[in-house]
Amino acid sequence: MAPLNVNYKILRVKSLGDSNVTESHLASLGFVKDAVIKVVNENDGNLIVSIKDSRVAIGKDIAKKYW
User: Where is the Ferrous iron transporter FeoA-like domain (predicted)?
Assistant: First the structure.
């Protein structure tokens, strides 16, 4: 996945397709193009990320759409 504690800029977001998490919900959390995101913890592909002064847990299926 991505190394911990490194800032990344989201360059694009792949379509989530049939995922039960909507793109609009992720966008409301800050997962949009040009946002800065940092992985603070990883466990078996599931991530805790820092974005917009918040920490958000995302599953590995969603994480793959960003890395």
Answer: 11-65
Tokens of 33: 């193009």
For residue 59, the SS3 value is: coil
Q: What are phi and psi of 2, to 5 degrees?
A: -120, 145
User: Domains in the chain and their CATH numbers?
Assistant: 7-63 (2.30.30)
pLDDT tens digits for range 9-39: 888 777 666 666 677 888 888 888 899 999 9
Going by C-alpha positions, the residue among 51, 30, 26 that lies closest to residue 39 is 51
